[in-house]
Amino acid sequence: MRSFLSILLLAIVDIACMALSITIAVFIRQILNYFGDFPIIDYAYIKFFSVYIIEFLMLAYLGTYTYRYDFWHESHLIVRASVFSAILLFAGLALGQNAEFYSRSTLFLIFFSMCFFLPLGRALVKFYLFKTKIWQKRVKVIGNLSIQEYQIFTSFYTGYTLVDDENYDVLFISSKDFSLTDLNKIIENNTIKNREILFIPVLNQYDFTQAILYQNFDARVNLFALENKLLSKKNKLMKSILDYSLSLFSLPIWGVVILLIALKMKIEDPKGKIFFLQERLGKDGKIFYCYKFRTMVSDQSFMQQWLIDNPDEKNYYNTYHKYVNDPRITKLGSFLRKTSLDELPQLFNVLKGDMSLVGNRPYMITEKNKMGNAANLILASKPGITGLWQVSGRSEISFDERLKIDSWYIINWSIWNDIVILFKTVGVVLRRDGAS
Q1: Rounded Cα–Cα distance for residues 227 and 223 (Å)
Q2: How far apart are CA 250 and CA 58, in angstroms?
Q3: SS3 label, residue 106
Q4: d(Cα 257, Cα 254) in Å, to the nearest integer?
Q5: Contact 152, 160 (CB under 8 A)
Q6: Given phi > 0 = left and psi -120 to 50 = alpha, else beta, which region is 394?
Q7: Which helix (H) or strand (E) holds 2?
Q8: Chain Cα centroid distance, residue 65
Q9: What is the DSSP string of 13-28?
Q10: Quick one: which of 355, 362, 415, 350 has its CA closest to 390?
Q11: What is the DSSP string of 150-193?
């Protein structure tokens, strides 16, 4: 009953979000009439039921009503559903010779709006359903949960809640704690009782949602096909298009901000430099100058004595490659760091081709030996202004953990992951998580 009610409420909210998307799209289209000679569009599009039917069926086909994806995975599926629905609708209108009766720009705006309002609407309704326990699914854990595994059960969006008794709906197996024979017995016993079973593959550093799954019926086995998608020429082109299009389109905004910050710095310190150039390791280990706003005082001769007086700071630096209370940072520099505006000039590095908007951390030359075997993999791609390591805790993450995160990002790269990281970066900057 709870499952049926959840699906029903999700479907109702989806339809409401579709209607809202149509309303907003028509409103925007009407505004455009004031800036050009466009055909008049009215709100009759709300009754265009083909939009609702195609989008709803596509969402159902992709399993968004039956499977418990996390927010970003489900948002990806919603975007795919909206794109395919738009293609199907345009094709249907063309085949039926009805395309001239509908505004293509309005239909495009409708499906574009759905990419935003459907995920938001679903997040709101799932939050409410979780609070009322309708969306909750009881999970029993066998084995010891790692910190990474525990994070799975802290989200209202998936709705999983941990229980200790035998009244559970889902069984989660921490597969690292059991042998293959024990795992088979546990799974067989629970499939007989028709319980859902969750487990993380032993090779948990790979994103199997991007793998191709082959069924080999005769051998009674499945094959996972994995590849480094970031090495594909097509994907490299897509990533470059994303870098240059976002950087150039936003140039009027960030260019003005850089100019204002530079003027402020010159007023406070007329003789000081505006930019701080530091040699960093780029693609294939090529050295480039990474641009940042200068956030420290020019004269740092006092640091040697300061480190003698503060040995704890030196130990902290050896782990995190930063100081807790860095005396070299200026007042303006502190503000730039807290808001991450000190990294804004790196957009020039993106336009030069040295960096990407999203990528691994731009490592220092002195860190190459410390990177060990991970250097070959990480340095095979351009470093980024932001990256998975920044939205996963930023400066609180140790150096070794950064290497693991950067390696995971490169192995499991996708254009959608880059888009998610860009969105999450905005939230991190606004919350100032880990900034200093």
Answers
A1: 13
A2: 33
A3: helix
A4: 5
A5: yes
A6: left
A7: helix 2-32
A8: 22
A9: HHHHHHHHHHHHHHHH
A10: 362
A11: HGGGG-TTT-EEEESSS--SEEEE-GGGS-HHHHHHHHHHHHHT
Q: How large is the C-alpha radius of gyration of the chain?
A: 26
Task: Report how far residue 66's alpha carbon sits from residue 62's, in angstroms, rounded to the nearest whole number.
Answer: 9
Q: Are residues 210 and 414 in contact, defined by beta-carbon separation less than 8 angstroms?
A: yes
| Cα–Cα distances in angstroms (integers) from residue 149 to residues 27, 96, 200, 260, in the given order | 45, 51, 8, 45
Whether 354 contacts 327, CB under 8 Å: no
Ranges 276-280, 331-335, 397-401: which has the least confidence: 397-401
Quote the crossing angle between the two packed helices 104-131 and 71-95, to the nearest 10°: 150
In the structure encoding, which two tokens stand for residue 194, read together? Answer: 């028709």
Q: What tokens were used for 300?
A: 């740092």
Residues 420-431, mean pLDDT to the nearest whole number: 87
Rounded CA-CA distance 259/406 in Å is: 32
Asked if residues 289 and 279 have their Cβ atoms less than 8 Å apart, the reply is: yes
Residues forming beta bridges with residue 279, ordered by sequence position: 289
Q: Are 350 and 251 in contact (CB under 8 A)?
A: no
**pLDDT 10s digits, 30-89:** 887 766 666 666 777 888 899 999 999 999 999 999 999 999 999 999 999 999 999 999
Tokens of 243: 């870098």
Specify the residue for token string 């007989």.
192
Taking all residues of the chain, what is their mean pLDDT, rounded to a whole number? 86
Tokens of 303: 């640091």
Q: Is 298 helix (H, G, I), strand (E, B) or coil?
A: coil
| Alpha carbons 387 and 317: distance in angstroms, whole number | 21
Q: What is the rounded distance in angstroms from the CA atom of residue 195 to the CA atom of residue 203? A: 24
b/e for 79-105, b at 16 or more Cβ within 10 A?
bebbebbbeebbeebeeeeeeeebbee
Q: Tokens 């487990």: give the residue.
A: 199
Q: What is the pTM of this model?
A: 0.83
CB–CB of 173/198 below 8 Å? yes
Q: Which residues contact 102 (CB under 8 A, 6 or more apart)?
A: 48, 93
Round to whole Å and give the CA distance between 152 and 147.
9
Locate 418 and state its tokens.
């880059």
Single out the residue of 293, 289, 291, 385 nearest to residue 330, CA to CA. Answer: 293
In whole angstroms, what is the distance from residue 391 CA to residue 429 CA? 9
All residues at 6 or more sequence positions from 332 whose CB lies less than 8 Å from its CB, including other chains: 264, 265, 268, 295
Residue 139 in contact with residue 163, Cβ under 8 Å? yes
CA–CA separation, 339 and 355 (whole Å) = 20
